[in-house]
Specification:
It is a single chain. The protein is of the alpha+beta class. The chain has two domains: about 170 residues, Gcn5-related N-acetyltransferase (GNAT) (Aminopeptidase, 3-Layer(aba) Sandwich), CATH 3.40.630.30; about 130 residues, 3-Layer(aba) Sandwich (Aminopeptidase), CATH 3.40.630. The protein has nine helices and 15 strands. Strands 1-2-3-4-5-14-6 form a seven-stranded mixed beta sheet, sandwiched between helices. Strands 9-10-11-12-7-13 form a six-stranded mixed beta sheet. Strands 8-15 form a two-stranded parallel sheet. Strand 4, helix 3 and strand 5 form a beta-alpha-beta unit. Helix 7 packs across helix 8. Bound molecules: coenzyme A (COA). The site of coenzyme A has 17 residues, from strand 4, helix 3 and helix 4.
């Protein structure tokens, strides 16, 4: 078995079988390449490592360079692992272990102190990550509510994508938070492009905004940011009028937002299957010492 970086891979289409089998992702390298060229998390990274056997890709581990904020307010880069998979025909031969080792070497060479990944406790990979030294960092509380109202047919005035205002509201909201909270307008544009966010998927108010996706009967909240509980509740109520059946927010890492959901009688799960795991790449610090208790990200920051 040979390991090469995604950038060295001659035929990028070779990644399709793994991505399709493991994640149901119909990987198109042209579309992915367009995002990878501009996404700051990918544009200077090897993008991932591929395990080759007989010149075919049999395993993959994606890597991103995350920009995070730490407890003392400084910006610190960290590693992020994504899209890890090995073809079932090549499982249990140590390919995952070798790919993860290569990813960690890349992060260590860059001087990163931590490697992060998002996974689920219900996946077999969870225990393999633990074996490699990953620990649970943050579990994702989630909230949902069934709405019985008919969605409003009222045409609302279309928002301009006021990225400057959105970026300002987000900055104020995350002042006392650490984690994946470093953004600028340009990065926002890239996030929206990647997530295919259109202006009609954003509710923007004077003191807050919500980004959502209507997925059939489900309205999924991607991000909700507001200066007060009252404002958050106002945004949530407006979203309920847009939902056909269910409003769902899968990552609620802000205490005030969680309280807002609670007071609107949402079903809250303080623990769900999804979580962030972290591995220390150096021995002299812990995750809590560096990031404290307010590590934050939203569904938009998923990697
Ligand atoms: C998770 C996955 C990448 C593991 O790949 P792999 O190449 O088979 O893993 P390895 O051979 O390196 O084995 C890693 C460890 O898990 C153990 N292991 C692997 N497959 C196992 C299985 N099916 N049951 C029990 N243990 C298993 C190995 O024995 C090894 O432990 P050891 O080091 O103590 O011997 C692979 O199962 C996969 O692609 N799963 C689907 C995609 C996925 O869930 N990705 C993770 C998304 S977060």
């Amino acid at each position: 078995m040979k390991i090469i970086s995604y950038r060295e891979l001659k035929n990028k289409n070779d990644l399709l079988p793994i991505m399709c089998l493991a994640f149901g992702w119909p990987f198109t390298y042209q579309e992915f390449g367009e995002i990878a060229r501009i996404d700051p998390r990918l544009k200077d990274s090897p993008i991932g490592f591929c395990a080759l056997e007989d010149d075919k890709v049999v395993g993959f581990a994606g890597v991103v360079d995350l920009t995070t904020k730490i407890l003392d307010g400084r910006i610190e880069n960290a590693g992020g692992v994504w899209g890890v998979a090995v073809l079932p025909s090549h499982a249990r031969k140590g390919i995952f272990t070798a790919l993860m080792k290569t990813a960690h070497e890349y992060f260590s060479d860059n001087g990163y102190r931590f490697s992060f990944l998002t996974t689920s406790q219900s996946m077999i990979a969870y225990n393999f990550y633990r074996k490699l030294g990953y620990e649970d960092a943050i579990e994702f509380p989630s909230s949902y509510k069934f709405v019985e109202k008919k969605p409003s047919r009222k045409r609302e005035k279309e928002n301009e994508l006021d990225l400057e205002k959105i970026a300002k509201l987000y900055d104020d909201f995350t002042t006392d938070k650490t984690g994946i909270v470093v953004r600028d307008e340009n990065y926002l544009k890239i996030l929206y492009k990647r997530e295919k966010i259109k202006p009609e998927m954003i509710l923007l108010d004077k003191n807050g905004y919500a980004i959502f996706k209507n997925e059939g009967k489900l309205l999924r909240i991607k991000e909700i940011v507001a200066t007060s509980i009252e404002e958050t509740k106002k945004l949530i109520r407006s979203l309920e009028h847009k939902a056909k059946h269910l409003v769902f927010d899968t990552i609620v890492l802000d205490g005030k937002t969680l309280k807002s959901y609670e007071s609107l009688k949402y079903n809250i799960h303080k623990r769900s299957y999804g979580l962030i795991m972290v591995k220390k790449l150096t021995n002299n610090v812990t995750f809590k010492e560096v990031y404290g208790e307010n590590f934050y990200m939203t569904s938009l920051d998923w990697f």
